[in-house]
Structure formats: C-alpha cells, structure tokens
TrEMBL record:
It comes from Indicator maculatus (spotted honeyguide). Gene3D superfamilies: P-loop containing nucleotide triphosphate hydrolases. Belongs to the sulfotransferase 1 family. The keyword Transcription regulation does not apply. Pfam families: Sulfotransfer_1. One of its GO terms (biological process) is hexose biosynthetic process. The keyword RNA-binding does not apply. InterPro entries: CS_Sulfotransferase (IPR052654), P-loop_NTPase (IPR027417), Sulfotransferase_dom (IPR000863). Keywords: Membrane, Transferase, Transmembrane, Transmembrane helix. It is an enzyme of class 2 (transferase). This is Sulfotransferase.
Amino acid sequence: MRYCINCCIHLLPNDLHRQCFRCCGPNYHNQKCPLCKGENRIPLYTDSKQMKLLAVLEVRTDHRESWNGFFCLRKGKLCSLIFGLIIMTLVMASYILTGAKHGLLLIPSPFHYGAFASNPSLMDNESLSDMKDHYQPCKMNVSYVKDYPSIKLIIDTITSKIEFMTRQRPGLEELRKQEPHMFSVIPTKFLPNSKNPCWYAEYRGNTTTDPYATNSYALYSKRFRLIFDYLRKVFWNHLYHYKGRHYRLRCLPHFYIIGQPKCGTTDLYDRLRLHPEVRFSASKEPHWWTRKRFGIIRLRDGFHNRYPVEDYLDLFDLAAHQIQGVLQSGTAKEHGAVSNIIIGEASASTMWDNNAWIFFYDNSTEGEPPFLIQDFIHAFQPNAKLIIMLRDPVERLYSDYLYFASANKSAEDFHEKVSESLQLFESCMLDYSLRACVYNNSLNNAMPVRLQVGLYVVYLLDWLTVFDKDQILVLRLEDHASNMRYTMHMVFQFLDLGPLSEKQEALITKSPASNTRRPEDRNLGPMLPTTKAILRDFYRPFNTKLAQVLFDDAFLWKRT
C-alpha cells in the first residue's frame, strides 16, 4: 500500500507521483496529517492494517516532483517491446524457413549433442532411464510436421555420413585386465568327450549349505526360484568325488541365438528345444553378457550389484547334470562315447546391446566402445556358433513399438516417434562416427523408438571382426514363416545335430508360431504409408551393405 509523503493518505494504484491531489495545491504546506500530526512520518502497514511497531519509517519530503523519470520509463518500455517483437519475428522466420533443422539465425539445434560422457562419475545419481531427460527434444520439431520432403533431408544427411569402418580388435591381455574374475573361473580347455564346452570345477562350499543361496537370478526373480528349488534337491547327487574333494560339472553354451528382438527368436527357441540333443539355459533370455554382469536388472531401475559369472553358469546346471549322466554311464566309460548334448542360450540382446560399456570401460577418444560383448565370448569360446534371425527392419521397428509402447499407441504416434528419433540420430551423426552413435547409451535411451536395432550390418560387421563367417548363421523371419521346414533343417545342419524321426520332425516344424502379435495390437492396423516410405529410405543403405556382406539380395527386403 502506498501513501502520500505529506498527509499519509492512501494513493491510487496508478499514481506515479508521491503526493495526493490535496497536497498539490499552493496551500498544501498548511495541512497536517491526522496520523503523523505534521511530523511527516509514515506508519508501516501490512495487508492494509497498521502495525503496532515502536519504529516508524522516516521519509524525507520532496516538494519538487519531476516527471522526467516517468517519460523515460515509458520510452524504455516501448523500446523493449519493439525489440522483443523483432526477436520473435526472427525466431519464427528461422523455424519456418529451416524447420529448426540447422539452427539458423539465432537458435542452435535443440538436438545437438555435447561431448560423450567418459566415465561413470558424470552420471552420478542417474539411472539409465533418467538419461532420457537429458536429451528430451523441443516440442517444436519436424516430428510434428508430417512432411516427407522435410524428413527426407534429415535422412539424406545421415546417409551422407555413413562410413563402415573396421574396428580395432582388443588383445587378450587387455580383456583379462577388464574382467580378471571371469578369466579365473572359466578355463581355456574343455572336456574332450563332450560336444558342449564343459569342465569340472572344485566345489568348496559346505555340503550342508544351500549352493544357490546367493544366486542373483534366484534373488530377483520368482520364476528362477522355482527352478533353483528343484536344483537344490538334486545338486548333491551330481557332485563328483575324487581324492577326497568334491567337483561339479560346469558348462557354457555351445551356441547362442544372439538376435534380433522381434525377429522370431522366440519361435526358433521353442522349436529347437524340442530336439532331443538340444538343451537351453534355465530361462530363454538371461541377458548376462549384455546387462546382468553389469548389474542391470531392468533398464529403468539403473544399476544393482553385478551378477558374477558363477550365477550365469548356474543357469546351465540342469543341462550339465544330463551331460554328466551320459559321461558317467557304463557305456561311455567302456567305449569312450562322447556326449552329443549341446546347450543353447537365446538372449536377443547379445548381438546389439553394448550400452553399458561407457560406465565400466575407459572411453576412447572417438566415443566408440573399446570392448564389445563378442570380444569376451570369443576369448572363452573361439569355436562358439552363433545364430541370427532378422526381418525387414521397417516391420521390425513397428512390431517393436507395438510390443513395448505402454499407452496411446497409434500409427500417428509411431510416425511422430520415428521422426523425432531420426532427428536425434542425425544430430549424433553430425559429430560422431556411425559406430559411436549406434553404441551410444544416451542417444539410444533418448530415441522414442529403437531405430538402431535395425542397423543389422553394423553389428554383424563387428561380430565378423572376431568370429569367422562359417560360425554365424543368418536367417530371415520371412523365409522361416514361409518355409519353416527348410530353415529348421538349415539350423540342424549348422549345429551338426543328429537325424530326427518323421514324428519328431513333424512336431518341431508344425507347432504353432510363438510370440505372435497381440490381438489388440493387430487392431491398430499398419503404419502410415508416409512412415513406411521414410523408414525404407533410412534403412536402404544399411540393407544394401548387408546384402553385399551376405551375398544375398533377399536382405534388401524389396518385396516386403
């Protein structure tokens, strides 16, 4: 509340001078304020009520009120308004003319990435899901403008930056320094009479304690607890006694189904496990190589304690017991028979998910991971066999969206998420290599849809730097769906499995397909034609390179 400096009368809110209308006349000095009694004091008011305070504010009266400040204030506000309008006009013009793509005039691109984090301390108190907040794009972007030519410019920029560079493979000693415990547990040689890589390891635990009490899979999953409840009951029956010591048979997988998600890996897994010579881990997808060994249980929950390699090996104990039964049978001992049982593992993240590297390994100068999953698998299993199931990356991405999106799913929403993800990917490609962007955890968590999973050739080339081409079988879901008998025979031959009876083969090849699209997702219909055209353009150079590497034009996916 404001008062006249002479008579303490309330001033109107719009009075800019310090005197009321009664004090502006020639006789204002003859008036006495009823409150301060002519002493020119102003009492302190709060919420229009006089406060009972001992102190009052002393105000010196000024009999000469100037209007110069008032006019200066008006001129300043007018200039500020005009300047603000000019700035706003320039900003709007830059967005309209450029689509906020290159950040012309006054605004930098909201999707421009800064330096890559080089160590975990840069991400303190943040989970993997929280990192998406760092790269939330501005709402005014091309993803809300369903304009094919505009998005095509982004794709052209990405295409111009694509370079398939050969990565430098790390040495064995470098790998040992990164994972010393893993190398102390897994031997370099395996049993000669087992087709599957197995070995005997001394069991140093107390025979009265629970051998799976500390297994992380059992602690965090009810499903695994049921499996380990059974293993506890039979564990002691499978210990091998030699010279007063106890030994247990340990095994690694003979083959891995490494990818890709939403490409039919579940169906292949369900059919393969029906073969009498094939066993799998306790769960289809342990995700140990890509996530659990780094302490990632669910991506949104951040990091937990790392799962040791012993916990991973426990998942193959049930299969190891069956292999041990063959090795210790009378027939095998007399005739030196070999166990033909092989173990598989089908984590669909193994091929592509190297997102955790930046938190555990020293960063390289180019932002590329110095170690990949395949480096460690090859170090222990140079003869491992790998199966990859792929599908048209355009359809894979839509299926991935329908499966993982939680709410508001629609063809229009998918289009917007695709456009937004393309912008983010382009921003990264302007500053970093293709490999650095593909394996960039922050970018991958920021993109609303997983565009990078469909860049098959980038991952395949990195696996081929470690494994020979004849150790990798690449299949297409489209071929598997149209001629399942043929693809399953390819797999049997690749794994060198024994012959099947007609009844067994019919059971494997005629079983209903697994993990098909949910009815509610099918009701949403196909993606928009514009979205499909955009994704076709984006994936085309990668599919072309993939077809060249595999010498098979079917991987161009021209007819799908």
